[in-house]
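lol so apparently i was supposed to do this last week
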Amino acid sequence: MAIQQSDPTVLVIFGGGGDLAWRKLVPALFNLHLDHLLPEQFAIVGVARKQRDDVSFRQHLRAGVDRFSRRKPADEQQWERFAAHVFYLADDFSDPASGPVLSGKLAELEQGWGGRANRLFYLAIPPDMVPAAAAHLQRLGVCRDCQRDRLVVEKPFGRDLQSARELDRLLTGMFAESQIYRIDHYLGKETVQNILAFRFANSLYEPLWDRRYIDHVQITVAETVGVEERGGYYDQAGALRDMVQNHLLQILCLMAMEPPVSFDADEVRNKKVDVLRAIRPIRPEEVHQYAVRGQYGRGSVAGTAQPGYREEPGVPPASPTETYAALKLYIDNWRWQGVPFYLRTGKRLPCKVSEVSILFRPAPHQLFPAAAVENWQPNRLIIHIQPEEGIVTRIQAKQPGSRLLLGPVDMQFRYRDAFKVVPPEAYETLLLDVIKGDATLFMRADQVERAWKIVEPVLEAWEAVPPGDFPDYPAGSWGPESAELLIARDGHSWLQPAIKPE
Ligand code: BG6
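anyway here it is w/ 6-O-phosphono-beta-D-glucopyranose bound
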């Protein structure tokens, strides 16, 4: 019988007491509950080492929902109804001698429901703990049904090409590829998905979408936050592993991919892998021309003084880890030959903004007098991913008055104004897809490996030569000077965000 979204389902969260479950997963599940999208027979089982009972676990999660849910605070009755589906299990999955507590809990739930449930195992744990958790599932034999049982693995998947391959070998030795959901939450964001709709449901822009009309593309993912409580993890990762290898390259794929024949999961993923395969490899001796790193020092963001990265909790005082990374990439195919794609991301930048700017080539003939075009700017299309989701087209217009003077004006579409709803959080979309068994928005092993291949020369070069000048940008600035030079060498400059957060 085919698997249905309404089938009894149990979601086991390894790392149930952690930050991801608290801030993102459970608030997302609570919103799915409010929207009546969860099966009637549904349970969430948080697994972690610490001893605690269901009641205190539910209280802890409630505090997270009240703080982070898009519909906060939780309504008392709704919360009670939801919380009745939530359980806690103390289990040390890293200990091969640990008993079958998890299988016992699953059996108990399924007995109550009168049949086998779809079992989803979410590994919300640091990357180095994934093998132990997977081995635990295999030992218990609870994730064997290729149709019903799924494993969700958080990014970063491995820490380089080799470790990603090893992890893959390990997981595919235990589970079928179709059971493994490699999550990149950027793919669940409404506006990231809207890139596909924008490109392939409209005929207006696609004819312009290539090297003949596009001069270059900029992808910016800027954050105001520092490393928060994740210093230990982040210091091992850095911006290139934490953001570029996954989120930014995924956005790049959606911008640059060829039109898929259908919306079938593998068809879309094949087209994205084609983009990664076409990215020109960066040769070791060229890394400095294509990649830039930086680390924030003390400064202030929105008027509040902030410590330097090396003063953050869990970060060694002489850490060489980058909190900013910028890359220039070329895609060697017919469509994009010669068009640079500039990617940048950083922590403690002046505002939180993720956007893609497409800069078009100038009009082929300048017929206006020089005085009329003092403020001239090339056409620009901006896809604004967050926080103010929307699309802006910047065009030239005659300014009112007797003089002929041209200036840029914006045509804007804002999600908020057009649809009058707050879009669901990325994790709501993705968790629902895992429940339904739809892998379209998840990464396939070959995609992850390709992405590692692209950043690997940079990782290696940076590891071989520790930075001599860190910290090199103050918190609250737009990053290191070297990032300006990276793009200025080609005669361009980084663009300021188009829609100002209110
Ligand atoms: C996560 C990174 O994947 O994405 C974090 O590990 C980062 O370091 C976060 O802060 C950004 O996500 P969002 O949805 O806030 O843009």
